[in-house]
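Figure caption, in words: inputs first, then the predicted bound structure.
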Amino acid sequence: MNKATRKAVIAGNWKMNKTPAEATALINDIKATIADKKTDGCDIIVGVPFVDLAAAVEAVKDSAIKVAAQNVHWAEKGAFTGEISAEMLKAVGVEYVIIGHSERRQYFGETNETVNQRVKAALAAGLKVILCVGELKDERLLGITEEIVAMQTKVALNEISAEDMKNIIIAYEPVWAIGTGLTATPAQAEEVCAAIRKVIAALYDCTLAEATTIQYGGSMNAGNAAELLSMKNIDGGLIGGASLKAPDFATIIEAAQA
Ligand code: PEP
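Bound structure (phosphoenolpyruvate present):
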């Protein structure tokens, strides 16, 4: 398997934006914008806030768009005020969950170990996972990007079976590029995505590594998507800001058809 046989995945991360009514409106906008375009070259996902999930699941019903939550707790149930379990997400019709986003690591104390616990809980409940990894600016400047990303990947995938890997997408998101307007160059993004694929080959095997979808995220937009997505080891994008504008998101989806 190689880039030509891996299906691209374009996923929007809406972060803390949109009420349920606004989520429905944006999904309807996206559907209308892509209606007359070729889209079967990629899977399309929208990652919405918890309170928007039910509305989003309803709004995507007659389309190819899938819905992701932006986090999940590792416990099945219990005294975890404010948290949401994997079973709850499944019950509202969610298919994917984003885990380990750098904003969760940066502002909410997420660690590689809790990321691993969340990945396990999500998979056990039958959810598919978008697992985020990426280095800080200082780590890049120190020249330790690949070590950091390898460690994040290895710990997050600890005790995850080869079978379960079929349900995991990895999103390489350099933290310095998220929401900053700074984008990794296609060469920088490609280098790290290729390194992640090598880590997966070492953890599992080459066949599984070649079959794994690895996205790039970090200020991907309508203008730079085509070049990033043309790289050999970049199989899609996790898109924040630009996913909130239907025409821009649609342009990125179009760029993934090549
Ligand atoms: C993200 O939130 O995962 C992201 C990549 O954001 P942005 O595209 O806005 O940098």
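The chain has a mean pLDDT of 97.
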